[in-house]
Amino acid sequence: MRIKFLSSPHLSLLLTISTLSLSSCSLSVPLPPPLPILPIPTASQLRWQQSEMAMLLHFGPNTFTDSEWGTGHADPSVFAPSSLDTRQWARTAKENGFARMVMTTKHHDGFCLWPSAYTNYSVKSSPWLDGEGDVVGDFAAAAEEFGLELGLYLSPWDRHEPCYGNTQKYNEYYLGQMTELLTRYGDVKEVWLDGAKGEGAKYMDYYFDRWFKLIHQLQPNAIIFSDDGPDSRWVGDEAGFAGSTCWSLFNISDVEIGHTIEEYSEQGDPEGTDWVPAECDVSIRPGWFWHSSEKPKSATTLLDIYYRSVGRNCLLILNVPPNTSGLISNEDLHVLAEFTNIRTAIFSINLAENSTVSSSSVRGNGDTRFDASNVLEESIYSYWAPKEGSPEWVLHLNLGKPISFNVLQLQEPIQMGQRVIRFHLDAIVDGEYKTVINGTTIGYKRLLRFPSVETRFVRLIIDEARADPLISFIGLFVDSYSTTNDLDEDDKRFSSKINTVVRRQWPRRHGQFLNGRTAEM
Ligand code: FUL
């Protein structure tokens, strides 16, 4: 065998060819997506957040005794719904855009809506279906039939159970009940742990760590809600309002369940190391349970709540309490249908849909995966990405003709982390750019309302971000239902809040934001 050695001119020619072919090869290889910025959501948190709205149902002896916090001594015979129909609840949830139903399987009064083996204070001691019924079973079956996710509320505070106050015994009791719930009724997608406990209640410790671990072991896809996560956090008020600045970032170790710092929970923490998005709970009526004397909120009030919860990067969980018949009342059905019609009227026509979009830069070399036009598709899985290290981050929209609008919708691909700290929208009015609205934080979804603007050209400027910003959706809409009182204020004051309130009040861990900058006008 002969080995032929190349002479040096041959060798250098070969090297040049291979270098050329290598570099042309690397030219045709697309740039991968940018690195996610931590923390990022789990698959369950992503699914949960994209569902946007859940329905909460408070039902139990309190419904029949006209109370909110039952003493735990109501006779089980009071629980006697005449025409309980969990399918009506599920149909209502489905028709009105709720993806999940969460029911009080046991409220603070300790009465169980399923036949628990660990107590007789339950449906089995009630006259309903001669003690043979199981509301949780019916509820789970209805959720499945209507394609809804199932969520269960199990109150830690129990005013009936005699062992409450004995830490060891009650933790065993609570986990025994939790295990029944999580092993009997199929897939459970949310477990709701309410941190409430009345003054004067017996002192005891809840073994949260063990509870969370067991819940995730039995139902790995379940989101655990509490004041402090681990998967979703209480927003900190019962009005359904998140902060105008709202991060899904949070520091679990800075909060103790039952001792919420309202402002911290409402706003989240731009430097938090845990991904714990906020859930906004509010009742359609003044009380959580049904009372004959109370009326539901108006559809426009619900719309305002929607803007301040879903429109602020949160999940809205709206309580719709069944009445003593075991049905959602007609008045509530009516308001819910109106709320749905209003949302459809506003959000089914995106006036930016046919615009031509351009941007200050695009990641990669003409790679359509990161193109500015991706912001017209309403999905977090397609997005605009700027060139790495660009000096400015701007998206320009040419609407084709002058259009009037008064609502802006923005979305970030949160699977890549929440990035945007501050942004503003400009429009060309009378021949020059004027600022329409300033805002802070986008997250999964941000909705902002402002006085109507007529223009053909708008631009979105990202003023500050934790990393190169990624934008997955821009929509412009007309809302003729909100009043001028509901408009979002100029959010400049909230951007200064990031630097003052947030930075001063809570323990800081990581110093400055990354990549903060002011875009050139
Ligand atoms: C509170 C409870 O005390 C109320 O009764 C209700 O369940 C609400 C959702 O949470 O903390």
TrEMBL record:
Domain of life of the native organism: Eukaryota
Intracellular or extracellular location(s): Secreted, Extracellular space, Apoplast
GO molecular function ontology, one term from the record: alpha-L-fucosidase activity
Coiled-coil positions: none
Keyword Secreted on entry: yes
InterPro entries for this protein: FA58C (IPR000421), Galactose-bd-like_sf (IPR008979), GH (IPR017853), Glyco_hydro_29 (IPR000933), Glyco_hydro_29_N (IPR057739)
Transmembrane segments: none
The protein's enzyme class: hydrolase
Keywords, comma-separated and alphabetical: Apoplast, Glycoprotein, Glycosidase, Hydrolase, Secreted, Signal
Signal peptide start and end residues: 1-25
Protein's UniProt keywords contain Manganese: no
Protein name: alpha-L-fucosidase
